[in-house]
Amino acid sequence: MAERIIILGGGVIGLSTAFELRRRGFEVAILEIHSFGGQASGAAAGMLAPYSEIGEDPDDFFRLCLKSLRSFKKWQQDIKEVSQLPFEYTESGSLHCIYHEADLLSMETRQSWQKEFGVEARILEQSALKQLEPELSNEIIGAIHYPEESHVYAPDYVKSLEVACEKSGVELYDHLQEIKLHEWENSIRLTSKDGRVFEGDQLVISSGAWAKEYEDVFSLQFPIYPIRGQICAYQLEPARINHILYSSQGYLVAKENGTLVNGASEDIAGFETSVTEKGIRRLTNWNYHILPFLKQLRPFHQWAGLRPATQDGYPLIGRLQQANRVIFSAGHYRNGILLSPVTAEVVADMVSKQSTSIQMERFAPERFS
């Protein structure tokens, strides 16, 4: 009889892990206190852009992101095949823009170390940039062009994952309001607020910022905190902007439905997901320095999501040494969408007690204790 795996948390990490475990033959149930993909996952801009975001250090985290990016094309095809639900996956490439000559050296340094990992990256001057994106501001003097970076439409991706899980035979339980863990040593047993009991052989905790609640249960420190990310969107003609556009202030990414997503301002507001005028103003105060026409437009949509950030910026992924039936997989911060396929693979390997080719010591969940 197949082992039964309980997953706490129905965001993109929990759903991806459930999908991978189910296709490896495990019985899987996901428990979610709210709605599936309702926090960081569904609110994300959906960028798959580790080269633009990680510019300083080719560490184990970069390697993890790199493997996930290069797994994504096959991964998203598998999800679409099972769910029969389409979602946007666009291999748009990106432009990481700079405004000052002093930034050229850091750009060249970034290009140099990333080249060792087979990253295709071209440094473009203003004239070449204008050929790729004519609408770019004349303030921009250059950029790194990353053809490999891409993006998905996050709400549809998460929904497709949910349906793929359901069609694969994963048990999905949402709006449970409260979940308590009672047994984790000899077996797994949890209860929901309405009294339902959930039992299994192993437990995967993928509850994002809510994973911190298990510090007292395991007498360990899990410093994961919710960071509110506020985003806005503009209505544009389709294909007016073709690349992900980065600067030191944030990003702009155009979707197939004609929206231009602008993000993200960040602040600490506990579990509050309201949108603030100050948070959106942080975006509108700089975005026209990338695309000047935005100064004449107003966002038609604004929203916020909670990003689970750890104390050192790296996720917690690994089996607890003192509770060998429990695996943590939380704290992916801004990279939950990007890291969903590789996290699913690594956690499924851990559940199966198989070795993995990825160095995971840096992400040990007990490293703060």
Automatic annotation (TrEMBL):
SUPFAM superfamilies: FAD-linked reductases, C-terminal domain, FAD/NAD(P)-binding domain
Gene Ontology BP, a term: thiamine diphosphate biosynthetic process
Reactions that this protein is recorded to catalyse: glycine + O2 + H2O = glyoxylate + H2O2 + NH4(+)
Record EC number: 1.4.3.19
Domain of life: Bacteria
UniProtKB keywords: Oxidoreductase, Thiamine biosynthesis
GO cellular component: cytoplasm
Record-linked InterPro entries: FAD-dep_OxRdtase, FAD/NAD-bd_sf, Gly_oxidase_ThiO
Primary enzyme class: oxidoreductase
Pfam family, one: DAO
FAD dependent oxidoreductase domain boundaries: 4-350
Pathway assigned in UniProt: Cofactor biosynthesis; thiamine diphosphate biosynthesis
NCBIfam families for this protein: thiamin_ThiO (TIGR02352)
Matches recorded under PANTHER family: GLYCINE OXIDASE, SARCOSINE DEHYDROGENASE-RELATED
Record protein name field: glycine oxidase
